Amino acid sequence: MAPAAGRGALGLWRACNWLMGAFFALAAFVQVNDPDAEVWMVVYTIPAGLTLLVGLNPLVTGNFIWKSVSAIHIFFCIVWAVGLAYNLLLHTKQNILHEEEGRELFGLVIITAWLSLCHSASKP
Fold first, then answer.
1. Contact predicate 120/61, CB 8 Å
2. How many CB atoms lie within 10 A of CB 12?
3. How far apart are CA 80 and CA 120, in angstroms?
4. Which residues, other chains included, contact 18 with Cβ-Cβ below 8 Å and sequence gap of 6+?
5. Cα–Cα–Cα angle for 65, 39, 42, nearest 5°?
6. Could you tell me the pTM of the whole model?
């Protein structure tokens, strides 16, 4: 019974990564209207590629290159998110989701959370 449960959990994990990969790819695609679209397309395309790789082969999270790219991307997203949060604390006058920076912050938090989850799910 345990192997069947393990296969089900692995299948669910792969499906979640495919879903998040599609989400990040769509987020990258809709950036074309943004004034700084090039930056945001890269910010969303990197996690799209990383999560799609996990969807194809969950063991890729143990790969040195995958771990390095994800760790570097997580680091830059956290630094950028802290800067945006500080700016929003100082200058926001309404709900943060009504501000472009608030939506950008939320996107960075989603990227950081998902990549951190994938990173922590890797086998040592």
1. no
2. 10
3. 21
4. 51, 52, 55
5. 35
6. 0.89
User: Which of the 8 DSSP states describes residue 122?
Assistant: S
pLDDT above 70 covers a percentage of the chain that reads 94
- CA distances, 40 to each of 13, 37, 56, 115 (Å): 26, 5, 24, 16
Q: Which residue type, as a one-letter code, is found at position 73?
A: H
Which residues, in sequence order, are CB contacts of 39 under 8 Å at separation 6+?
Answer: none
In angstroms, the CA 44 to CA 84 distance is 17
- The first and second tokens of residue 2, run together, are 């345990």
Axis-axis angle for helices 100-120, 2-29 (nearest 10): 150
Which pLDDT value is given to residue 46?
97
